Amino acid sequence: MEQAVNWKPRYNPWLIAVVVALAAFMEVLDTSIANVALPHISGGLGASVDEGTWVLTTYLVANAIVLPISGWISSAVGRKRFFMICIVLFTACSLLCGFAPSLPILLAARALQGAGGGGMQPMAQAIMADSFPPEKRGLAFALFGVTTVVAPALGPTLGGWITDNYSWRWIFLINLPVGLLALGLVKQLVEDPPFLRRFKPGEMRFDTVGFSLLVLGIGALQIMLDKGQEDDWLGSHFIVCLAVITVVCLSALVPWEWRQKQPIIDVKLFRIFNFSSTSLIMFLAGAVAFASTILMPQFLQTLMGYTAQSSGLVVSIGAVFVMFTLPVAGVLTSKVPAKYIMLFGWLASAVGLYFSARMISLDIDFKTAAVIMTLQYSPVGFIFISATTASYYGVPQDRSDSVSGLSNFMRNMGSSVGTSVIQTILARRQQVHFSRLGDHLGAGDAGFTLNLQSAAHQIQGAGMGYASALVAAVARDYQMLVMQATALSYGDAYIFLAWGAAAMFLLSFFLKSNDPQNTTVHMGH
Prior knowledge:
Number of strands: 0
CATH architecture of the largest domain: Up-down Bundle
Order of helices and strands: HHHHHHHHHHHHHHHHHHHHH
Shape: globular
Number of domains: 2
């Protein structure tokens, strides 16, 4: 027992951390790199844009199903073996995606790729957690934060550059050398600690009912989140059916898993207050971080005329600042209780999002957009590092794989929920602002009438008849009305996210305050 507690990896922990982070970075990057290439993929395979979006949905569904059960799978086959299987599956399916001759084959390959990727994030995090002593985990998670925070921000920029200069197929094919390198290094350097939970021969039982409930519930939820706004949510019978399946299956899943001797999802971890609290924080951190990441590029492309590559560059500038804050947060976790680092992160996030709402308008330039992105993105590292570190506090060592799987699952689902909610808020608030602004643009408004006539006379001076010039002036004003209403809706979205960050700031007060110098507290009993 003492040997298990005092176990150390044979190789330098930082070398191991870099290797597993490389594999995780490749996987996380792939979740966002394909976004900007969807029109090219659809066109190249003769599919509609709506059909092309399933390239993202199939990956996310398979990814979301594997994440929470990765702890059980690692107990069945071994962590290192499972990690290597995931790398092989992900890399092989990336190759298949790159050469896919049709959309159905691409979707099948993306689903398998997502399944392989679903085990890479939690296993990489768990390997880091066990390779470092508890008081140094924060520094290791700073490196892991590059994969979870920076990779999604760099994905659209890299994807846009590859698609514009080469072919959409290369966004998948570039995974081949990285995957092969990661596979070889993991085989050589990584080993399983002696304290990991393993099933004894003949002991393993596959929870068919639990797995079925998980697949149906999470699959329906992910599809509902991806297609909800597009299909007008509960106005669609398809979305209503998905909602019913989600509620029924996930409501039955928790009590079913609670009673199992070998649950496929370790739901009893949620009895640990710190783990359940940090899981909620991870969920909302994923929602706030990912939603704020997609808002600015979307604003710049739809309203300001930016290309995918140039708008992605704005996000990348924010990501560069995060890379400076991540090691700072990692160092602080070895000196300051994670609770206080998290409080600072949420407070800075709320303030940054509030000022983003005040600054965003149709008059912003590239520099201002980069400042906004930096304000809202820089605090994310403090939140993720402290929450990841705190999630292991009070949890037994042999359950670290389950902790990693569930915390990554909560973060990923938060990202999906945050994206869907923020897109719905944008659509609804645009309608509200359009209606309010439209009340001032009518024949009864003297100022509007005067401006309209003035604009019509200016257009008439270019050689157009007055009636046609008046129609053109109305069309121009209508376009400006839509753009102003849309811009105001983005400000509302940032305010909504700011309130969410403020709420999480208050929740963080209830976390237990650990002593970063006390190694036994982190490890549980």
